[in-house]
Amino acid sequence: MNQEKIRDLEQMISSDYGNVAGIVVRKNGEKRYEGYFHGYTADDAVHVFSVTKSVFSILIGIAIDKGYIQSTEQKVLDFFPDYTVKRGEKTLQNVRIKDMLTMTVPYKFKSAPYTKYFTSESWVKTALDLMGGKGKIGDFRYAPLVGPDVLSGILSNVTGQSALAFAAENLFSPLGIREMHKIVFNSKEEQIAWSTKDTHTPGWVADPQGINTVGWGLTLTPSDMAKIGQFYLNGGLWDGKQIVSSEWVTESTREHSRCVQWGNLGYGYLWWVLSENTYAAMGDGGNVIYVDTEKNMVVSIASLFKPNAKDRIALIKERIEPIFEDR
Predict the structure, then answer these.
(1) Is 19 left (phi over 0), alpha (psi -120 to 50) or beta?
(2) Closest CA to 130 of 141, 154, 146, 115
(3) Is 133 left (phi over 0), alpha (psi -120 to 50) or beta?
(4) pTM (whole model) above 0.85
(5) What is the pLDDT of residues 116-135, one digit of tens each?
(6) pLDDT tens sequence across 106-115
(7) Are 321 and 295 in contact (CB under 8 A)?
(8) CB contact at 8 A, 108 and 133
(9) Cα Rg of the chain, angstroms
């Protein structure tokens, strides 16, 4: 019966979800399903867009575990002593790491100035310049691209490494995620072409200063994504090694703020909190790392860029979980 349901699922994905590259399901710590679609294979890395945020959250947790960062209560500007604050700019002076992780930082724009941001020499400095203003710290404001890179600047300043190098040593290598390279664009056209093309070489986008992005820009395979979900489900453990503290896993996946405008969803530390037992990393096009702690299940879906992609959480809950929850 399950094989028949799997065939039905695969037929539906092939016909109704034209941008899905691959799906991996893990149950009780074991891989129960791995499927690829539309010509993609297990070796194809996909740009996972905002799933990058949740992966970066793990790096902040590791940096705290290792003593590079004291706590999420530290002020952002403490890590940028050479940054000159504009006169009267009190809001920015009070922004904490925690505020950035929970998307509760105000910005001085209504519509994000992407061209100015991505054509600047330092995406971190430009983000700092755009933070603050008359807004209130504590109100949820999702920053898709402009802003989160400040966290990458903090990580690089305290560790002396890029986020990619730090991740390679402390996260990717322990999980068996293959080596990847820094990607720097020479033009806006190059960036757009890379962001929207079908397949990607393993890599992580960086600004001209070599600071890796936080809001987007990481490529992963569906298997890589499932490993990340599994070790989080394990409380930060992988192959008997504590990659990040269980306290960080708990803290980063509990609700700290709430996004009313998009389904009234809870938000942790760069992770979406869907319910008491489920949380997810979610990115444009329908990229998802979904974790159900009650059912001891992880589902990863890697997808190509597509505006207004179909709801992947509904797909998981209604069509994928029921097939595997009793296996």
Answers:
(1) alpha
(2) 146
(3) left
(4) yes
(5) 898 899 999 999 999 998 88
(6) 999 888 898 8
(7) yes
(8) yes
(9) 19
